[in-house]
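User: Batch of two.

Assistant: Item 1 of 2:
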Amino acid sequence: MKTLLLTLIFCLFNLNSSEIIGKYQIESNRAGDTLELKKDGTFEYESRGDSCYMWSDFSGTWELKNDELTLFHNYSFQEETTEYIEKLDKFSRDFVIFEVTDKNGKPISEFEVKYSINNETQIKKTDKNGIIKFNKYDIESGKNENVGIQIKYLTNGNETSESTTVNGNSDKITLRINDKPKTIEKREKYRFSYKNGILKSIEFPYVEETSTYKKL
C-alpha cells in the first residue's frame, strides 16, 4: 500500500512537471516577454520591453515544486575597472582638479589624461600626488556641457583604452582605477506560481509588478 501511494505521488509530480513544459508569453500591452520551459530542465527567457535598448535574454534551469516554479540563473561578471567621481564646489573656478588613484585611494603618478572638447585638447600627466590641473573650457549657456576624457591603463597586465565624458563644469574629478578586477559569480533565483496552466510572477525583477504568463 505504501509503495502504491509513493508511486501515485511520483506520477502526479511528473504529470505536473510535464504539463508545465512549453512556451509562455506575458500578458502586457507594453512588453512581449516569453519564457520557454524545456523537457531537459532548462529554460530560456526573452525580455522584450517597449524599448529595444532594454531587451535582454538569459537562461538557466527550472524546478516545479508544490505549484511553485523556480528559475535558477547562474552568471558571472567582471568588476568595474574605472570609477569617475565628479564634484561641484560652492564657488566655481576656471580650472578643474583631476585626481587619479588606485582602488584603495593611493595616488598614481605619471598617468596621462587627455581632456578635450570639440577641436580643443589638453594632454597632461599626473604629478607625484596623482593630480593634474586642467583649464576649464568656455561652454556656451545651453550648449552641450560634456567634456571628453581619454585614458590608457593596465588591467591584469593588459593595456586598455577608454573614452568617456564628464561634466565640463565639474571643479574636481577623481578617477579610481581597479587594475586587477575580479570575476564575480552570481546565482539568482526567481519565483512564479503555477495554477491551471497560468504562471504568475512572485519574485522576478525583470517586471515592474506582478505579471501573468499564458501558454502559447
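Item 2 of 2:
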Amino acid sequence: MFAKESTMTQLIKALAVGGGVILAAPSVASAATLTLIPNATQTVSATVRCSAAGAPASILAAADAELPGIAAGQNVQGATAIRIGLNPGGRLEYASVMRTSGNPWIDAAALRATRLSHYRSETRDCSSVSGEYAVLVDFSGEDK
C-alpha cells in the first residue's frame, strides 16, 4: 500500500505524462472510484463529422468494482492503476496492471472492473483518436 499522501494523488503524480490531467472522474454507486488519465501520446485515426472540435476521452459507464470479500475480511484497502488502450471507436484494446495495490485480490477486481467498463475515445479536430490511458481504481475509501 502507499504512504499517507492520498493514494489518488500519488498515482496521478506517478502516472501522468507530459502534464496530463484527469479526463473523467465518474461517480458510480460502487465501492471503488474509477478515474481515467492520459498515459501516452494519442494518434489520429478515423475522421468523423462533429459539431465540436474536440472532446476528451472518458468513462461512459464504469462497472461496479466491489472490494473482494477476502480483502475486506483481511481489512485490506488500496488502489490499482490499470494501463488501457482505446481504439478510435472507444473500444478497449488491452488492459493490464500498471501499478499494483500490493494485494492480488484488489488488483484482480480492478482489472475486471476496467475491462467491463465502457469508454469514449478522445476526439481532436473532429477526428477520433486512439490512445493509451491509466484507469485508477481506488478501493481505499479516502476522500479524493
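Helices lie at 7-15, 69-73, 104-116.
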